[in-house]
Amino acid sequence: MRNTRQLTDDDCIARAQRGDATAFAELVRRFQDRVFRFLLRLTRTREDAQDLTQETFMHAYEALPRWRPDAQFSTWLLRIARNLAYDMLRRSQRVDFVTLEPEQEARLVDTAPTPEAALQGVEQLRLLEAALARLPTDQREVLLLREIEQLSYDEIALVLDVPLGTIKSRIARARLALAETMPR
Fold first, then answer.
1. CA distance 145 to 41
2. Environment class of 111 (CB within 10 Å of its CB; exposed 0-12, middle 13-18, buried 19+)
3. pLDDT tens digits for range 72-130
4. What is the pLDDT of residues 34-58, one digit of tens each?
5. CA torsion angle for 62, 65, 66, 70 (degrees, to 10)?
6. Backbone phi, then psi, for 107, in 5-degree steps?
């Protein structure tokens, strides 16, 4: 039997669907950072993002027998994460997000290479995060999925369960709104 780290995602999924806990643990290892980053930027609190990441994988584990290979696993996970985040935000009636204190923002800096890594200096990153926080949630989430998570337009449409044309127009509006809120 091969080490699960040597298996493809599809092999791990198939094994996990047959009840192999080690294969599911490997899937969690592979995808948890991506889900957490998405949720952290969406909810803007580390505690909520941690709780929602754990809840995402619990839901995924329960729904795994119904997952079909025609859906991309990472998109499926992000959709679960998004739905859980929106449920939590609705329950707490938190629709708008507040700007974090500089000390909190410093802890949010992702050391993994991301589109933000192209920005020069911490000040530009702080300004970008603040500008993103001022965007409406629907605009912020499409930018996060496209620019941070680097999903294709088709994948974003699957995650958000909206038509492709809607995704294209949301991204265009979000980019314009972000450009308008960024200081020159």
1. 10
2. exposed
3. 899 999 999 999 998 888 887 654 555 667 776 666 655 554 444 433 556 776 777 78
4. 999 999 988 888 999 999 999 999 9
5. 120
6. -75, -20
> Does the predicted TM-score (pTM) go above 0.85?
no
Cα 112 to Cα 9, 47, 100, 105, 162: the distances in Å are 21, 20, 21, 16, 30
Own/partner pairs for 44-53, CB < 8 Å, 24+ apart? Answer: 44/97, 44/98, 44/100, 44/133, 46/107, 46/108, 48/85, 48/88, 52/81, 52/84, 52/85, 52/88, 53/81
Q: Which two tokens stand for residue 80?
A: 């679960």
The 10 Å Cβ neighbour count of residue 152 is 14
Contacts of 167 (CB under 8 A, 6+ apart): 142, 153, 156, 157, 160
Using CA of residue 57, residue 26, residue 65, residue 67, what is the dihedral sign? positive
| Residues 86-99: tens digit of each pLDDT | 888 888 765 455 56
Distance separating the N- and C-terminal Cα atoms of the chain: 57
Cα–Cα distance, 184 to 153 (Å, whole number): 28
